[in-house]
Amino acid sequence: MQTTTEVRYDLDTAEVRRRVTAYLAAHPGQTSRFISAVVANDHPLANVGRTVERLIFEEAFGNDTAVMLAEYGPYEDRSLFFVIIDCKDGVPAGAGRIVEGTGIGLKTVDDAPAHIGVPAEAILATHGMTGEKAWDYTTVAVLPQYRGGQSQLMVSSLIHRTFLVAGARAQVRHVVTMLDRRAYRNMAMLGINLQPLAGSGPFEYLGSAENRAVYCSFPELAGDIAARGERLLGVRPIGDDHGARELLEHPARLISARACELVGTGKGLDEHIILPA
After folding, report:
1. Which domain of life is it from (predicted)?
2. Per residue in 233-271, pLDDT tens?
3. I need a surface site. Which of 6, 61, 86, 205 has the fewest CB within 10 A?
4. By C-alpha distance, which of 4, 228, 218 is closest to 128?
């Protein structure tokens, strides 16, 4: 595999398409419109993922290439990318990124103390992070042309499902992440137990007026998500799942249930996730 040592957040359209085309040529026979390519930080497709990140973050928060280089530079060598490819058009549709570590050295853990007033060591102690493998879920990005309807459902679900599949393979124990208001709402709709980092509340962060730092236990994620879907469909009693109860009369109930099924079980998605050898 060809690798690249240059970190780029500003590939032009032609170069993005060239790299996607090269990846598809190396992985022929795809039967789905969308696939997820899991690639290391030095893979040529990683800079496609970075460019998608920058496009989304600049649109939403004004974070340009210079900001992205400054914010993510210390974490590039521990990053893993999930690049969602539209096989029909030969272009990226979205991207996800994780940063791997055990505690201090994860971007969320490094950045949170200045905003929540709790030292990093106390954050780790609060959530029982005592050296086991942890992932910082730093990016979930869907390009504008894939937002809304079936495309957004498939692209976002594929990012989240890839996170679960790759994380299980890597034996991840802990998850931390920074979530803006929309991302927090979307994660909560999946039935994920989002624990405020060290009991913290919302704060402003990198252009987001309402950001939350949260912790999740990785081994519980897939089961919790699948169970939320079953409750929304009436297959399982609502019980004390207040989030599911609130969604029962919501117009988004069925699409939320479908997202939970896709992400929680991988049915119809797992065969379209390409993990590194």
Report:
1. Bacteria
2. 999 999 999 999 999 988 989 999 999 999 999 999 999
3. 6
4. 218
Task: Write out pLDDT tens, residues 112-141.
Answer: 999 999 999 999 999 999 999 999 999 999
Tally of domains within the chain: 1
Strand 174-180 with 79-86, pairing: unpaired
The answer to the question of residue 6 being in a domain is no
pTM score above 0.85: yes
Strands 79-86 and 134-142: unpaired
Is 4's pLDDT higher than 80? no
Q: What is the CATH number of the domain that holds 255?
A: 3.40.630.30
Asked if residue 253 belongs to a domain, the reply is yes
Backbone angles phi and psi of 13, in degrees to 5? -60, -40
Instruction: Give residue for tokens 């979205």.
Output: 94
Q: What is the DSSP letter of 131?
A: S
Determine contact, residues 107/138, Cβ cutoff 8 Å.
Answer: yes
Decide if pLDDT at 42 tops 60: yes
Give a yes or no: residue 7 inside a domain: no
